Each structure stands twice: as structure tokens, then as C-alpha cells.
Amino acid sequence: MTKPTPVAPGNRHALYEAHGYSAAIRSGDLLFVSGQVGSREDGSPEPDYSTQVRTAFANLEAVLSAGGCTFQDIVDVTSFHTDPERQFEAFMKVKNEVFPEAPYPNWTGIGVNWLSGFDFEIKVIARIPATPTA
């Protein structure tokens, strides 16, 4: 049985340590990425909603990269929204830039009433691509 291995981008490792969780866990050929938010380098929320969503996707991209993946390797997404009806248009604009064409990953959007000062969070499962052998 494969032992799960923690994965973290180098520039944000201290934030994950401070809060006691891994940015992602690699298990076999899957990467389970913890919820990513639109936080600045110091961990504080980005105040503008669209910028917060873009920053969350940038943070997600950094974790995926640290695990050997890209957005194209994502198979399942769960996103959390504090005011989905009001935020939908701005969210979809960013989402469509990140995933401009099919095939799209599975996606579940959930409305929540609290995200520790954030308005958007995204967690994913990605399949780690096989590396070609020499």
C-alpha cells in the first residue's frame, strides 16, 4: 500500500504548518488538494472578490505544480461560495478563463455562510500524470 505523501508549494509552507494541515496529499496517482483561498502571502484575505477568486486559482495552481499536476489534470472540484447568487457572474468569468474548453472536470458548488474571512474556496482532486521513462 502506498503511503500518502504531503505536498506543499515552497512559498506558502509556513502557513500550512501554522494551521496544521497539508496543502495536498499524494496517494498513488492521485493528488488531493486542500481548499485554497484567495489569500495574500501573509495569509490575509484579498478584499476584492474577483481578485480573491483569481488568487485562489493561482494558489491552487502552485499546489498542483508542486504535486506534478496542472489544471488539465483535475478530475473533481468542490467550490465554496459565501453569496453564490451575487458572486456567480464574477466567479464564472474567472472559471471560464481557467477552464476554457472541454473536457471539464466534475464540479460541485456549495453555498456557505462562513469561510474565515474569505468569500471563495476551492478544493480539487487531480490525477498525477505518468512521467515518461527514459
TrEMBL record:
<dbReference type="InterPro" id="IPR006175">
    <property type="entry name" value="YjgF/YER057c/UK114"/>
</dbReference>
<dbReference type="Pfam" id="PF01042">
    <property type="entry name" value="Ribonuc_L-PSP"/>
</dbReference>
<dbReference type="InterPro" id="IPR035959">
    <property type="entry name" value="RutC-like_sf"/>
</dbReference>
<dbReference type="InterPro" id="IPR038743">
    <property type="entry name" value="YjgH-like"/>
</dbReference>
<protein>
    <submittedName>
        <fullName>RidA family protein</fullName>
    </submittedName>
</protein>
